[in-house]
Design goal:
This protein is an alpha/beta fold. It folds into three domains: 9-96, 3-Layer(aba) Sandwich (Cobalt-precorrin-4 Transmethylase, domain 1), CATH 3.40.1010.10; 109-220, Methyltransferase, Cobalt-precorrin-4 Transmethylase, Domain 2 (2-Layer Sandwich), CATH 3.30.950.10; 226-268, no CATH class. Helix content is 42%, strand content 15%. The protein has twelve helices and eight strands. It has helices spanning 14-22, 31-41, 55-67, 88-96, 109-117, 134-145, 160-171, 197-202, 221-224, 229-237, 242-253, 257-268; strands spanning 25-28, 46-49, 72-75, 124-129, 150-155, 175-180, 188-193, 212-216. Strands 4-5-8-6-7 form a five-stranded mixed sheet, covered by helices on one side. Strands 2-1-3 form a three-stranded parallel sheet, with helices on both faces. The longest helix is centred in the N-terminal third of the chain and has 13 residues, at 55-67. The protein is globular and about 70 Å long. The two termini are 41 Å apart.
Amino acid sequence: MVATPIGNLGDITLRAVETLKAADIVAAEDTRNTRGLLSHLGISARLVALHEHNEKRGAARVVEWIREGKVVALVTDAGTPGISDPGAEVVAAVRAAGLRVVPVPGASALTAALSASGLAFEGCVFAGFLPARGAPRREKLAALAASPWAIVLFEAPHRVAETLADLHQALGERDVVIAREITKKFETLERVPLARAAQWVAEAPERTRGEFVLVVEGREPSRAEAADPIKVLETLLAELPVKQAVALAVKLTGARRNELYEAALKMKNGVRDGFPKNRP
């Protein structure tokens, strides 16, 4: 599993270059992109396509090649394979076959954005890309809102303003670091309150171009300490139907489903009673 540059070609590691030179086969998300990288590095290798649409079939081929004694290097268009990119199914198949998987670490937009965010955090949740729309998106946002941790997201340029607005609605008053085009010529990292983040993006056309990482600060400790099932349920009910909100609240707090369901119905009817806090 070979990490490749996310923008600046100088970020390729010596170990990655050596691994790609030694590989019998380079399995690439897009052979055209990888051919350009290999050409820049002066590497001639057998390239095969392995992307999200053929990963399951490709994983079986990778297993066969390794069993034949071949060294296979897996790369994606940029960054680390398997991190919001193809690769996880290949790793699972190779491990299931009892064969060895070797990580060759390198550039990662996730860690780059975190390291330069300036946000204080004791832990973070990496949420990848949010679902594009509908109930899955609302459920993911509601779950993130119930977490005390800093949140890291990837986002496409055509959805970044909408996502920032949705994050503000779900998470409330927090700061976000908008990291755009990390390691590239027009790299930008801007810390703004979520309340005006969508507006900040809309103020200049170039701010909606490129690849984005969003780092949202965690909740303040005073707000995150109490894992009150009712407060969690209230947050979830603002975005989700009763059944989904209750199921997610049970997972997040460990409270009993029947009691949470009863409380949810009362909330929907405008009634709140004394549900026991932190009850297992």
